[in-house]
Amino acid sequence: MVTAREWIDRLGLEPHVEGGYFRRTFQADHRERVPTPNGERYTMTSIQYLLTAWSPIGHWHLNRSDILHFHHHGDPITYHLLHPDGRYETAVLGQDPARGQLLVLAVPGGVWKASHLTGGDHGLISEAVAPGFDYADMTLGRAGDLLRRFPGHEELIHRYCRPEPDQD
Question: Could you tell me which residue ranges the DUF985 domain spans (predicted)?
């Protein structure tokens, strides 16, 4: 079995700001860029993304673009989704449909998302993003903002928010 360290080395993955490791694998250079309210974007981009036993959380973040997540290898990853209307949803991305795991998960733009490795050494996925990913289109979750927006989900918000630096 390939380990998390081997995947990082073989795929050339780097630490991701939201947690885990990633590498961009595709951007639609061969197509005209598409206009969005925040500027022109590729029609689609793709990454490989890895959560590990030592970096098991994809912290709360919001993307403006729609994202398809595909499970490839390793252990299941649980996704927590907070919709703009306050609805909470969870899904498990993994290789065992008999246990309710999904091979593919679609997350619409505008939905807050956090994820965690459900156990084991690693979970390897890829993501296809349309319009293509740009850091200007991603918002990292801050506990205070999310708590105001989604009252009633305090424990979940605190569990998956990236710790904020101490204010001195």
Answer: 6-140
26 domain residue, yes or no: yes
CATH code (residue 89): 2.60.120.10
What tokens were used for 96? 């065992």
3-state secondary structure of 167: coil
62: in domain: yes
> Count of domains in the chain?
1
Whole-angstrom Cα Rg for the chain:
16
Assigned token pair, 17: 């700001």
Q: Check: CB of residue 62 under 8 Å from CB of residue 139.
A: yes
Amino acid at 128: A
Write the pLDDT tens digit of every residue in 47-83.
999 999 999 999 999 999 999 999 999 999 999 999 9
Q: Residue 156 corresponds to which tokens in the numbers above?
A: 């979940």
CB atoms within 10 A of CB 152: 10
With 0.90 as the threshold, say if the pTM is over it: yes
What residue numbers bound the domain in which 122 lies? 4-160
Say which amino acid occupies 150.
F
Residue 168 lies in a domain: no
Q: Which two tokens stand for residue 94?
A: 């993994």
DSSP designation for 103: S
